[in-house]
Amino acid sequence: QVQLVESGGGLVQPGGSLTLSCTASGFSFDRYAMFWVRQAPGKGLEWVSHVAVDALNKYYSDTVKGRFTISRDNAKNTVYLQMSSLESEDTAVYYCAKDSGDWSPDYWGQGTLVTVSP
Fold this sequence. Notes:
The chain is mostly beta strands. It has strands spanning 3-7, 10-12, 18-25, 34-39, 45-51, 58-60, 68-73, 78-83, 92-99, 105-108, 112-116.
């Protein structure tokens, strides 16, 4: 069965950096795009970024562009999200998700909490 396990969340000060990881199993990782999606406290889901199977085509929301970098290592079945210049508005549970094949997610991890606070 498909499993996605995120790690790397935690407490970080404004302006700081953090790298999230998501390790996948149960499917052919190198055949699917991967997403990062977040949910801030009391708010809905927000798409953050996604990366194509070739690891070259990457897409970002305007709110994180220039601050976050998505990458993937197909040999390790892992997708990463490097976050820098973090702001309090970046506080959220971050989920990785597998593409269904039509640029929408179908499987989700359990999420990892990122808290940006002094």
